[in-house]
Amino acid sequence: MTTMLGLQLTGRRVLVVGGGPVAARRVQSLLADAAQVEVVAPQLCEVLLDLHRWGLIVWRPREVVEPDLDGAWLVHTATGDRATDEAVVAWAAARQTFCVDAGDGSAGSARTPATTQQGDVLVGVVSTGSPDPRRTLALREAIATQLREGRVDLRRRRAHTGRVVLVGGGPGDIGLLTLAGRRALAEADVVVTDRLGPVAVLDELAPGVEIIDVGKTPGHHPVPQHEIGRILVEQAQRGRVVVRLKGGDPFVYGRGGEEVLACREADVAVEVIPGVSSAFAAPAAAGIPLTHRGTVGAVHVMNGHDGWSSAALTGLRDGSCTVVVLMGVSALATLATEALDAGADPATPVALVEEGTLPGQRVTRARLDDVVDVAASAGVRAPAVIVLGAVAAAGLLEPDHGDAAHTPASSDPTAPGTVTMAL
Ligand SMILES: C[S@@+](CC[C@H](N)C(=O)[O-])C[C@H]1O[C@@H](n2cnc3c(N)ncnc32)[C@H](O)[C@@H]1O
């Protein structure tokens, strides 16, 4: 029979017999548990020598003798020599001290579990029958994968301190939600969401997780920003883990900064998990490289509501950077007119990527001087990312694009007849 226990080894003396790589692995995990480690071995491998040089372990450079076990809470023997390991196991048994025998897992009085940690939960796997380390590791890996991917309901059942986690959910495709974001969702008691981002993940939440929709549609703001901040704070103060699921990255035109401030002002713990921004993901999913060797080496991301900055206009005019516009569909006419008035090349390629990474993804291409008409006749709608510059030209990544990598912004950007392309 085997009983699994969570040992508290902090500051407790653990004796490791043996100086090779197996002993070194044991020592490293014991040090991670803050144990006071003493190693007995005539020689040490490089790893253990370093730990000794750094003063992290005590080393007795000789063969083990029985009194070495005095005062140890736990013993590990990993000498590679059966007779020595067996002697250590016997000495430990005589002292009623648990002993792990690395050479024969069934010989000692303790076994080392294969472990995986998720937050403050440690999961261990040991075999109760004859040891089968590969099988144990395979099971540990299966459990670790479930935890890593946020597939286990990790909500706390006991009263706990509330906190807020801002999760950048990416542009919409559930596959672009990070593992860290999924893990946060697995711990959430409540998810505050809006219309952008990987909303499909909401269907995967455990039963009982509350969903608060503060969704905004363009030109219509059902829940004002200060109210969203208030909801986050109030939910956390009720002792709940609150995930604020946001589209893209929380800090790229996501008002994540304001939500962090609202939490900090109320003394509520808040954490930010970065996300894949639509500014980069939507063009990439549409096959548009925002930088391309020999074409352009810089990117300027701007918000269509705020209009052109002189830096963005200069970059667009001289072709030195790609301009990416978020929230730009309703301001497209103004943006195009202002750019042309400021001297931008009328032939500058423009691509509008709607619903990037989602099933409805569509790319509409035009030139700066006809993009307003082309977008109107194609019925381009938000959410869309607008890309302006040489990289927005159709066929840039086609092998037969010729000298495309060196196409200046002023050459004809659109393939004949190509206006709208559904991917
Ligand atoms: C309020 S901003 C939020 C941006 C977000 N924080 C990010 O990093 O992607 C909303 C704008 O992001 C862009 N956007 C978000 N998701 C998109 C998607 N899947 N496809 C195209 N554009 C998207 C649109 O320009 C939309 O108007």
From TrEMBL:
Any one GO BP annotation for this protein: methylation
Pfam family, one: TP_methylase
GO terms of molecular function: NAD binding; precorrin-2 dehydrogenase activity; sirohydrochlorin ferrochelatase activity; uroporphyrin-III C-methyltransferase activity
Entry EC number(s): 2.1.1.107
InterPro entries listed in its UniProt record: 4pyrrol_Mease, 4pyrrol_Methylase_sf, 4pyrrole_Mease_sub1, 4pyrrole_Mease_sub2, CobA/CysG_C, NAD(P)-bd_dom_sf, Siro_Cobalamin_biosynth, Sirohaem_synth
Class of the enzyme per the UniProt entry, highest EC level: transferase
Region listing for Disordered, in residue ranges: 402-423
Keywords: Methyltransferase, Porphyrin biosynthesis, S-adenosyl-L-methionine, Transferase
Residue ranges of domain Tetrapyrrole methylase in the record: 163-371
Gene3D superfamilies: Cobalt-precorrin-4 Transmethylase, Domain 1, Methyltransferase, Cobalt-precorrin-4 Transmethylase, Domain 2, NAD(P)-binding Rossmann-like Domain
Active site: D194, K216
Protein name: uroporphyrinogen-III C-methyltransferase
